[in-house]
Input
Amino acid sequence: MSDCLCEINSSDIDLTNERYRISFSENDINFLAQSLRESGLIYPPIVRPFNNKFIVISGFNRIRAHIHNNRIDNRPTKILVYQTNPDTTDYQCLLKSITALAFKRQLTQAELIICTNRLYQFLDEKQIAQKSSAIFNRELSARFVKDLLAVGSLPDPALELISTSHLSFKSAKKISCLEKDTIETFLTIFSNIRASSNKQLEIILYIMEIAARDAVKPKTIFKNQEIQDILFNEEKEVVLKTSLLRTCLFEQRFPTVFKTRQKTREKIASIKFGNNIKFLPPENLDSQTYSIVFTAKNFNEFQNNVQNLNAAMKNKALKEILNP
Amino acid sequence: MKIDTLFIDKAIPEDLEIEYLLSKMNADPQWIENSKTVYDFINDADDPISKAKKTLYITRNKGAVIKSCPGTSFYTCCDYTILHTGTFCTMDCSYCILQAYFHPPVLQYFAGLKTLSNALEVRFGQNTIFRIGTGEYTDSLIWEKVSLQPKFLVETFAKQNNCLLELKTKTVNIDSLLPLDHNGKTVIAWSLNTPDIIGSEEKGTASLVARLTAAKRVESKGYKLAFHFDPLVIYPGCETQYKKVVELIFEYVSPESIVWISIGTFRFMPGLKQVIEKRFNHSTIPYGEFILGLDNKMRYFKPLRINMYQKIISCIKEYAPDLLVYFCMEDEEVWEKCIGFFPKKEGELGHLLDKSAVAHCSLNTNLL
Output
């Protein structure tokens, strides 16, 4: 049986019950409230009778905006809603909550995670994948559903970090199979930095590999004073913290490479080639081929570069670099 | 590792070699027409690599029987010749590149002694020295207890004088070789590592002492020897451990019996890392200081490689100053810093090894 369109008192709606809420973004409802005033309620929210009250299946923001307008205008608090039939099951309500949003706009990754985890109470991975186009307005493979479920099992604040782009889906998936302690460690790290997905994966990789190599828990690495100082220094920008953390982890993961690169860089800097000349060591210092690049806009600049190169020839650091 | 499934290619004749194999193996053979049966059987397993180690496919070699070692770009190769007698291995070394090299890996035994002999005859008739080995895509002696092939090869090589046969192994399967008239043309080589690495990374292989004891036994029968420190693995305390291995070699065998020792640090195609992590989750070998080398393989950072090589080579030279030590896949800087010269010209390293082969195995000197 279809839902019936009726008017109810907005005070009878229990907004604290968010069991069907999918989108947790705290949008400013002022614009929506203005729109309701101008155009009226175009799409009525869907509610479900529950314990002599109504709980919201779809339209949290519309109801909040409606209540907001009524408070300002001191008008009667009736609102037009679709009320579900008393026989409507939990599963059907859940479907309504998802489809109402998914066919309006594409769900975010965090919303997809929430939805698949809720659906998993009623359907298995394959069934979710099979019904995905009808529910999510897009096809999801069983494998992706599995990943969504794995990420959905992460503790707080994983979802919040995903929705604020502090934690990429790939990284979330990567840490979802780790021990609880380790997951919490990574969630704390990503709460305190801002890194691209690739950099997040690099951070996870280095910490896991250092831990495996040194036979310690990843948490032990996280508790290292240097890392704590980077992550919890309130005065440092998140981008700087990210860069410092990556450098620190690289140094721990590749101590010899780090030291050698640093020494080479220092030696090159000591040669003072001038601003127009770039002296580049070989990739990973595995070959012996150094390259030198300079630019010149005119003959004078060219001559200056050559003079700088001649001066560099007398610097013993250059010989040390080229004939180690 | 026990073979629990045995497939045999219907196309191969049931000759003496096959009869011998079947009589020695405790597995009911399944005669199949299409190798796809084997591939599907292995691919359907949760861990195809482990499954492949217990599944033997006796077939014929449908490709080249003899080929040159592919080597690798930018690093110096020794110009080795491969005799293709089979693929994959029953032992389970975590670092084994064959796990990632074949898709899927299939444990194949290439039957057909006549095929081998025909291919070898061509080489035997050439006026060139060849160093030929069977240990590139498999262990040379894993089937020694059940196969006539090693005996056949030793005896075939014994009858000529321009080719050396190198049988490279981590087993101690030498019994059938001891009474043979090898005529000095077969070198039996062992891959060596520290007891720590053998214990943690070389599952199913013989212990270091067992390998050296076997080396001593074949030496007593006049066989020449070779040793391969490949892969050297860098870990805390490894330098002392590798030096002890070197000392132990010379406690067991004489330097004069050793044709060459090769050294190479652990290097791998990037895809192997995931295999190791999945199949050997306690292994820490992928977490060394690896960089992407010029040949797109992961290698230890060069200063670390050089340091290791210098220590081990100086130790070898203490015991055997004239022994030929060479690198498998290293560049000019490493050669210069660790050995003091670099075989720069194409074929120069190969020529050095040929010289040692001629000197130790009584090959035709005029062919150098």
About this structure: Chain A is about 55% helix and 10% strand.
